[in-house]
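Box 3.1 A note on notation
Throughout this textbook, protein chains are presented in two layers. The first layer is the amino acid sequence; the second is a token string describing backbone geometry. Keep the layers aligned when reading.
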Amino acid sequence: MTDKDLSNIRHDLRTPINHILGYSEMLQEDAEDMGQADFIPDLQNIHSSGKHLLLLINDMLDTSNIDAGKMNMEQVRHGLDAPLNQLIGCIEILLKKAKDKGQADFIPDLEKIQAATNHFITLADSYLLKAETDKIDRAADTSRTPVQSTVPTALPSVEEKVPSSQHASLLVVDDNEANRDMLSRRLVKVGYAAMVADDGKQAIELIKKNAFDVVLLDIMMPGIDGIQVLKILRETYSMTELPIIMVTAKDQSEGIVDALNLGANDYVTKPIDLPVTLARIRTQLSLKRAEEKIKKYAKELEEKLKLLEDKGISRYDSLIKRKNSYIIKEKRYEKSLAIYSNLTKFGIAGLCITISHPDVLRATYDLSECKGRFLWLSTSAGEGDAVSPTNLVGIHGKVIELIKNNKNSVVLFFGLENIITLNGFERSLGFLSSFIDSIIINDSRLIISIDPAALNPRELSLIEKSMIEIKDDDLIRLGLN
């Protein structure tokens, strides 16, 4: 038997196990919500039996074990008896209990677990029993006491509902109806809107007609598989415009690598771990919204700048083109301080926001002709002109105090990296956006000196989008280098 054959067998056997796990988790959550505590122990037993089956399949059908002659298919098949017996027994107990107590809402999902168990038995007999082995009719053999396969444990706490401000529209793409049903229902339960597609073609059509925030895309599908769908979508949508999270079996590492290389944002493995999946969805939504905020801001910025240009407002240095904010990439501050000193010595009002004490800057650099003020960002802010780097409102207020009384002023900013570290990237990005808005409204200029190695490439890219980079050629032209 080849590695590919074993991989296909593992995939086929895991699918009904995933359904057993998923529906039992959903029923546990429903039982807790509805105050039906007496359903929970048997549902936990079903879930633990499903986990036991999954461990057995992963271990017994491992290529190295079979190659080493540690087991044969007949042994594998008989090793599944105990958890299957427990599953069948618990399902029958719960179906009877649901009917006796008038809890009809539990029955459809219990029947889905029963169908998944029967499907697993059929597949196991087909794949694993030798031709001469007598097949055991477990569905009729309910006289034996179920054997506890593992100690049942409660599920991780259910995720809180998504705040209304974070609602999003998601698309679940999977050729398996139960997989689609389980994942979409759980996403809806926590507060997302979810649509489903049963194949790649339908997914592409739905995406053309609807604005989805995130797509959860199964890799292995008949017809157009997940990798092909990803290729097609990436021709039209970037990773931030349409985040795509691949859903895959644990042993499909080659498919995961291909997907990530083709532009998948992330991946989750089956059986779906809901808290992990929700965390990855939230991450992609945060990145998408940050990108959208930047684009919106950039558009507004262009409109404001055009308004200023139409009014014929002059620019005070030869670097000014269409924007009011500039970035200099440097590990030390020579270039930015040279510009700041040069501008302020000619009477332009200035404020240098710095993470270094102003006296240290004066002792290190030639600032003899600099007429601008300094604002020290210090966590022990208490002396002189100092503000805590976590007091974003205070920093903004100091800037407004300067630029409202001094048109065409200049603000030099060291320490954005520290602001991001202490306040988080998203909050810092919002601060920077409002900061630049104030600069534009008051017809002033902002220069940010930043060490590119202190930020990850994505953060640096988002900051750069609304700024003009000052390069060495510009400094030479101004006689500052």
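Residues 130-158, 311-322, 477-481 have pLDDT under 50 and may be disordered. The first helix runs from residue 3 to 33.
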